[in-house]
Automatic annotation (TrEMBL):
Keyword Transport among record annotations: yes
Primary location group: membrane
Sequence segments annotated as region (Disordered): 1-22
Top-rank taxon: Bacteria
Organism of provenance: Streptomyces rubiginosohelvolus
Name this polypeptide is given: Transport permease protein
The ABC transmembrane type-2 domain, residue ranges: 40-266
Pfam (any one): ABC2_membrane
Subcellular location, record wording: Cell membrane; Membrane
Similarity section: Belongs to the ABC-2 integral membrane protein family.
Organism taxonomic ancestry: Bacteria, Bacillati, Actinomycetota, Actinomycetes, Kitasatosporales
Biased composition (Low complexity): 1-14
Keyword line: Antibiotic resistance, Cell membrane, Membrane, Transmembrane, Transmembrane helix, Transport
Membrane topology, as annotated: Multi-pass membrane protein
């Protein structure tokens, strides 16, 4: 980039040295600025899950302990659900149209003949949306605690592990949508369909823990159904079920490999 006019270092940089890191850092800074200029994405990823939690908390029945939920309140269950909603929004609604638009307009192809590799742009988008998901999770947790007295996760290491695996699974799903979508319009269409399915499997309309047994077993093999169960278990003080963590890891690996093989830069 333009900062390369400074005094040359005493020794030539290796391929992994500053000159390779510099363009990637510049891409990340530029993409961060563009990301922050999109108030719509910022609202739906960062703010809306907390807004939804506040609205649901206005329902008196949601603030009362339920015997069929093991003495928990519905609002307690909706904290991890709201966290997952931010991930779904980032992965299938926000990220795919951006990357497919870059490819559709030839930006990725032109980047391939510059020191900035197209993979730097993909990495920057994944990093930004992952950070937004984690920031949203922190805000939802704080809102639930302050507004409705929702207990903080009792099994914090297990909760963080489930959270990171859920983010990874979500973003690999988003990468898969980018890989199979030739245009931004196609990415939006695929993302909308996936959004509705993932919202159901995460328990937005009906918490997974309150679903009939047969339906719950089906939902639990989906990435967000497994994530909902793992987060709820950790929040209640238990270590997340290894089956649920394994399902999240498996989805991440399978979707990641498929996206890497199908993704085209032009």
């Amino acid at each position: 980039m333009q900062t390369e006019t400074t005094t040359a270092p005493a020794t030539a940089p290796t391929p992994s040295g500053p000159r390779r890191r510099g363009p990637a850092a510049a891409v990340l800074i530029a993409e961060t600025r563009l990301f922050l200029r999109e108030p719509g994405n910022l609202f739906w990823i960062f703010a809306f899950p907390s807004v939804l939690l506040v609205i649901l908390g206005f329902i008196p029945a949601f603030r009362e302990a339920q015997d069929d939920l093991g003495g928990r309140r519905v609002i307690d269950l909706y904290v991890p659900i709201s966290i997952l909603l931010a991930m779904i929004t980032a992965a299938v609604q926000a990220m795919p149209p951006v990357l497919t638009a870059y490819r559709e307009r030839g930006i990725l192809r032109r980047m391939s003949v510059t020191p900035v590799r197209p993979s730097a742009l993909l990495s920057a988008q994944i990093l930004l949306h992952g950070a937004a998901c984690l920031a949203s999770a922190l805000l939802v947790t704080a809102v639930g605690r302050i507004a409705y007295g929702v207990a903080l996760p009792e099994q914090l290491p297990g909760y963080l592990l489930a959270l990171l695996l859920a983010v990874a699974a979500a973003l690999t799903l988003g990468s898969m949508i980018c890989a199979v979508s030739r245009t931004a319009k196609a990415a939006t269409a695929f993302g909308t369909g996936a959004y509705l399915v993932m919202m159901f499997s995460a328990g937005v309309w009906l918490p997974v823990q309150a679903m009939p047994d047969a339906l719950r077993r089906i939902v639990e093999i989906t990435p967000f159904g497994a994530a909902s169960q793992a987060l709820e278990q950790a929040a209640s003080g238990s270590w997340p079920g290894w089956i649920h963590l394994g399902i999240l890891a498996l989805w991440t690996v399978v979707l990641g490999i498929a996206a890497a093989r199908l993704f085209r830069w032009q």
